[in-house]
Structure formats: C-alpha cells, structure tokens
Design a protein that fits this description.
By secondary structure, the chain is mainly alpha-helical. The chain contains eleven helices and two strands; from the N terminus they run H-H-H-E-E-H-H-H-H-H-H-H-H. Helix 5 packs parallel to helix 10 and helix 6 runs antiparallel to helix 10. The protein is elongated and about 60 Å long.
C-alpha cells in the first residue's frame, strides 16, 4: 500500500487531530480501503514526523469512530462501513464546509438514483398511496407559504422504503439529516424552489408508479443536479 507520498509532516498544535484528519481523508477517498492494514506505528511516526503518543491517540480516535480496528499482534486495519463514513463526513462538514457538503451531495448522487430504480421495481400499491399522500401534503405546505421540508424528506425516505433495502434507508436517512440545514436554506430562498422540488418529486413518483426504472433514475438525477450547490 503506497500511501507514504500522500502523508504530510504535521504542524498543528493538536497533533493527533491532524493525523486523524489526514488518515480519514485517505479512507474517504478510497486510497486506503476497508480490510487494508495501516502502516506500522513506527512507520507512521516517521512519515508524519511525530512521536508515538500522537499516533496512538490518533489510532484511538479512529477506533472510536469505527473507522479502524487494532488486532493484537497483527496491526491496525481499516474497518470503515458506509454508515460510519456518513458520520465522519458529517463531522467534516463543520470543519471544512464546502468539501464536506459536496461529499454528502456526491453520496446522494450515488445512492438515490439507484434507490429510485429499485423502488420502481419493488413498490407496492400501499407504498404508492403513501408516497402520493406525502406529495399532497408537501404541495399543501408550499401553497400555505411553508417549506414542506418534512414532507420532502418523507418522500425520499419513502422511496427508500419502497426499495426494500433497510441499509439504504438507514444510509439515506443519515445523509438527509446531515444536510438538513443546507436543504432548509435552499427551500427558504423562494417559493419557486419549493415548487420545482415538488414537481420533480411528482415526475419521479409517476415513473415509479409506471414501474419505469430508467425514467425514475433519470428523474432523480435531474432533481439532485438542481439541488447540488455550485462550487463556483
């Protein structure tokens, strides 16, 4: 595993936090993958230019975040699950807002089109009725001058329920919760933003109701592209 060239000498006051930040970024980017072994404590000390105590503190912090696991006599291995990565990315939003938010939106772009496709294949009549009711309530909220954020969230999670995959539902719920503040700000901009969101939801629901996974996927991608904040 050639990561030595990606590590930088630590110069921050709280040394172990800087180590955690660098290793977390490498895990997020897939440079260090689940199941891979981290360099030895001695190697990390040399590559970071720090003492053993700092490396050990960093390792304990990564273990607490469920990103790594130390096995006696074997070393420290990456054990990050998608659920734990959501938590880590959420934490990074507060320290690196632009990068963290875009990580979260990228994660939505990966997950939700597939969720919509699965929902189109697996949705039941009862779930369709529930989704239709959610959109009726979202429209009523918008017409009443309110945001409809709760109904917006219910719709996306309702699709995840229709996809019949509890793990995807859990993962999406974590993502939406992490993005709640920025989603609320977006909906507050003006009523047209809220109406476009409802209209996009209606198109997605129509595709799901027609069992058309391609249209459901395309509708979700279009919806998320409009919602994703620009880096400019």
């Amino acid at each position: 595993m050639a990561i030595g060239g990606r590590l930088q000498t630590v110069k921050k006051t709280r040394v172990y936090e800087a180590i955690v930040d660098q290793l977390t970024s490498l895990i997020l980017e897939g440079v260090i993958r689940p199941g891979e072994k981290l360099p030895s404590e001695r190697e990390l000390c040399e590559q970071f230019g720090v003492g053993r105590n700092s490396v050990r503190e960093a390792t304990r912090a990564l273990e607490s975040a469920r990103l790594v696991e130390t096995r006696q006599g074997e070393g420290t291995f990456v054990t990050a699950s998608p659920a734990s990565m959501v938590h880590v990315i959420s934490e990074k939003v507060s320290s690196d807002a632009e990068s963290g938010i875009h990580h979260l939106f990228e994660a939505r772009m990966v997950l939700e089109p597939q969720i919509a496709a699965l929902a189109a294949e697996r949705v039941t009549d009862a779930e369709l009725e529930k989704l239709e009711d959610t959109l009726r309530r979202q429209h009523d909220e918008i017409e009443g001058g309110r945001l409809g954020l709760r109904e917006d969230t219910e719709f996306h999670l309702g699709l995840a329920e229709a996809a019949k995959n509890q793990f995807l539902h859990h993962l999406l719920s974590s993502l939406l919760n992490s993005l709640r503040e920025i989603r609320e700000r977006s909906l507050r901009r003006d009523e047209s933003v809220r109406l476009r969101s409802w209209e996009a939801h209606q198109k997605i629901l129509d595709a799901v109701s027609d069992k058309d996974r391609n249209k459901a996927t395309a509708g979700m991608i279009s919806h998320l592209v409009e919602q994703t904040p620009s880096r400019n």
